[in-house]
Amino acid sequence: MDEWILGEKFNTVYPHHGSIQSLWEKKWKSCRGVKDCYSESYTEAFLSTAENLSSEAELAEKRGDSETAVRLGFRSACVFRISRFPHLGPQDAGLKRHAFERQKEIYLRTGALMKCPIDAKFIQFSHRLDQEGLEIPVLQRLPLGHGDRPHPVILIMTGLDGYLTDNTALTDRLIQRGWAVVLCEIPGTADCPTDPKDVSSPDRLWSSVIEWIKEQACFDPDRIVAWGLSAGGFYAARIAFTHAGQLLGAVAQGAGTHYFLSPEWLSRADGHEYPCSVTEALASKYGFDSVEELISQGQEKFSLVLSGITKLPSCRLLLINGEDDGLCPIEDSMELADQVSGRELIIVKNRMHMGNPDAQPQVIKWLTELLD
User: What's the predicted TM-score (pTM) here?
Assistant: First the structure.
């Protein structure tokens, strides 16, 4: 790329990098001198606070104070979430896995107390290969009064570090519109059963999930829309082509599609707005053994543009991101928009990765026009 839209920021190392201490001072405050997000000492620093909040939530639930139990339970889950930051893969163990298991336990206990409960479901991975897991974990939320008719479904594809248990506020907004929500983790993250090294694994994943959705009486099989968040945006862009006939539309928010895996971009991405080394997380997520392998092989293997998938017919596709995104360049959304007929592109000025908070209301407006 001769000149990135990010401009001089492309070569800038943002001031919170270098150590957790500088990150905390610039964004979070001081954090006990811990210097590596990937270390267990980082995770350990949060656990006592998370457990204390969980205990307080349980006490509130026992005395019948559901409102306080929900508030404290979700706070506990949030602290556990940041403790296992920035990335957890299906095969990862250790303290971060422990934190994630505790987060799931507390999140589901808390979600069951809500007026519109958060329900865990396990879908048969009907299109799995032999080396892949048997079940696909998803979360489901239905709007109030869901028994009267089938509802449109928003299939949320989660991100690199935000998983099933990290999207309560978003699902609140969606069910308030009368839409059902199904959340699913993407290959190489959390509990996703797919082989992250296999380029075609997401296609088998989504085929299994969509088949399950169409079997449920509470969902309208003719009004399914995929919404990919951050790293999930890659899969929302992909599914718009691979499953075009089964979707009413797709939203790729903050999506990397081609340039984000180029050696040139990856050489500078660790210095941008992500609080830790994003290349280390991406290498693990895409099934590479090292950052060096990601840099040398990632784009050729996973680029949607080089794969030829973008030459297939697509469903309606909204591409939206912040113009100043330092993780997935806005050029990725622009490149895909140039290649896809009927595509819609929104560039959010003066915003970084994903374009929030300005982007989300625009996506919901687009969904409303599509579904209602």
Answer: 0.90
